[in-house]
Amino acid sequence: MAKRFTDTNKWNKVWFRKLSPVHKCFWNYLTDNCNHAGIWDVDLETAKYFIGKELNLETVKEIFSKQIIELDGGKRWFLIDFIEFQYNCDINSLNPSNNVHKSIIQILKKYDIYTLLQGATEGLLSPLQGAKDKDKEQAIDMDKDKENLKERILKNPAELFIRYFPRQGTHQETEDAKSMIKDFGIEIVLYAFHEANKHSAFSTAYVQKVCAGKKAKNLSVMVETRGTELKDSERKEMQDLIKKQKEADKKFNNEILERYTKIKPTLKTIKQQEIQKAINEGIWLRADRLIYEIESREKINPSAVEIPGMQTIGDSINKIIHQEEAVQK
């Protein structure tokens, strides 16, 4: 059984609050039983069996008309807000270089969902996809969700790994995340973990490297906007950030070399040459991706603690698709 995020704030949202108890239960059933791209094979008989109440197809279609799009003549439903909530990005921001996202993109294209969503937003807008323009209350809800996410992570940084990594974080990694939040702030840390997920670089060293680079960039922009030179304190901060970035970069690269050394004896010559070429050319993200795919298949990375039953990330995705695209340095 898959583990997924749930929106604890949905009980305060008007559209959900107005649902009957049966239809609240049915919505939770949908979000639990759709696939990792948010598509549910319509099976009302099974839904009625698990919910324990009668459901009328036409009634539920009307009630959830703003939350779903029908596919294949009604044989399947697409939950419009599922991807944005589960993966923290809209469908146009899915990254084909990420195994998780690539599989979802293929499914969306298969059912022509990009076109269907565009039509929905041009016509009768769904409050979940089109709320940004038409439903002020839903936009406020989204802001609250983001703030709730920040609060949850500040209380429990381990959630960063559940949300952005294909595994749970180790105790040391969670402590590293706490330190990064203290040093760089929650906004920058969230950005860095998102970048790590985007590039499939599941390493706290990579996250720290991105954090230092992002903060240094923010400082440079602030000074440029101000139109003056760096103050002494700012110059020292910039130097410290550059130092941290270089140290994190070196640590990330060393981690890759250590992991490559561990799996090298098990690799075929072609795969060895491919990884070695990426390392020699300094394309560390590509080397990391190639090594990670092998570790996931062979389960030989001791730090990769998979979440039992996780369908949206981890082994199940790697069995579906094996990413072989180069990532620029």
Give an account of the 3D structure.
The protein contains 17 helices and three strands. The radius of gyration is 22 Å and the shape is globular. It has helices at 14-17, 21-33, 44-51, 57-63, 82-87, 99-110, 113-122, 131-134, 136-155, 159-164, 171-184, 186-198, 204-226, 232-263, 269-280, 284-298, 315-320, and strands at 39-41, 68-71, 76-79. The longest helix is centred in the last third of the chain and has 32 residues, at 232-263. The model is unreliable at 121-135 and 301-329 (pLDDT under 50). A three-stranded antiparallel β-sheet has the order 1-3-2, sandwiched between helices. 62% of the residues lie in helices and 3% in strands. The protein has 329 residues and is mainly alpha-helical. The protein starts with 13 loop residues before the first helix and ends in a 9-residue tail after the last helix.
How would you summarize the topology of this molecule?
Elements: H1 14-17, H2 21-33, E1 39-41, H3 44-51, H4 57-63, E2 68-71, E3 76-79, H5 82-87, H6 99-110, H7 113-122, H8 131-134, H9 136-155, H10 159-164, H11 171-184, H12 186-198, H13 204-226, H14 232-263, H15 269-280, H16 284-298, H17 315-320
Helix pairs in contact: 11-12, 11-13, 12-13, 13-14, 14-16, 15-16
